[in-house]
Amino acid sequence: MESHESEARAQLAALQTDRAALAGRLVQPWWWDVAFGVLVAAFFSSYSSHSIWVIGAALVLFSISMRWLTAVYERITGTWWDASKVGPVQERVRRALRRLVVGYVVLLALGGALEFLLDVRGAMVVVGVVMGALAGLSSRWVTRIYVAGLRAGL
Predict the structure, then answer these.
(1) DSSP letter for each residue of 57-117
(2) What is the DSSP secondary structure assignment for residue 28, as one 8-state letter?
(3) DSSP state of 47
(4) Rounded (to 5) percent helix, strand, coil in the chain
(5) CB 87: neighbour CB atoms within 10 A?
(6) CA dist., res. 50 & res. 27, Å (int)
(7) What pLDDT, on a 0 to 100 scale, did the predictor assign at position 14?
């Protein structure tokens, strides 16, 4: 019975060591956040063109570039973390993401109303730049929440 307990303790310690090592690898390089922010800014700024073709091209470019950024992240870190799994770490990340999404929707609605209803040309460029900056910063913030949870053993 004691050998099973000591074996279980050893496995738990090894698991915690692995989680700590994974946490150290998960933080993306600074330029990843900058690239993500620039892509978000460019996509939402394209709405100021009032052209479905420009917006559609921006969407295609955004999608392809995000797939590339994801592949680069996976190559650098060796993994892609998933906030949809059940656990305290993932719940913290989901809570942070919900707050961010609400803020982004409010900004998008405000920019859209200014640009398309009140005809304030360039409003979506300003909103796009703000959303891009927030996306880059929040990407780092959410990753740090996830990493801190892994290190804490949650």
Answers:
(1) HHHHHHHHHHHHHHHHHHHHHS----TTSSSHHHHHHHHHHHHHHHHHHHHHHHHHIIIII
(2) P
(3) G
(4) 85, 0, 15
(5) 12
(6) 37
(7) 64
The two structure tokens encoding residue 106:
């409010």
Question: Can you read off the two tokens belonging to residue 107?
Answer: 């900004």
- With both helix axes pointing from N to C terminus, report the angle between 123-152 and 88-112 in degrees, rounded to the nearest 10: 180
Residues 98 and 90: their CA atoms lie apart, in Å, by: 12
- Calculate the alpha carbon distances from 33 to 69, 111, 142, 146 in Å: 10, 23, 11, 16
Q: How far is CA 9 from the centre of its chain?
A: 35
Nearest 10 degrees: CA dihedral of 75, 146, 21, 135?
Answer: 40
- CA 31/CA 130 separation, integer angstroms: 18
Which is nearest to 40 in space by CA: 130, 117, 114?
130
pLDDT at 147: 80
Give 10-residue mean pLDDT values along the chain (154 residues): 70 65 76 96 96 97 96 86 66 84 94 94 96 93 81 68
Q: The tokens of 52 are what?
A: 């479905």
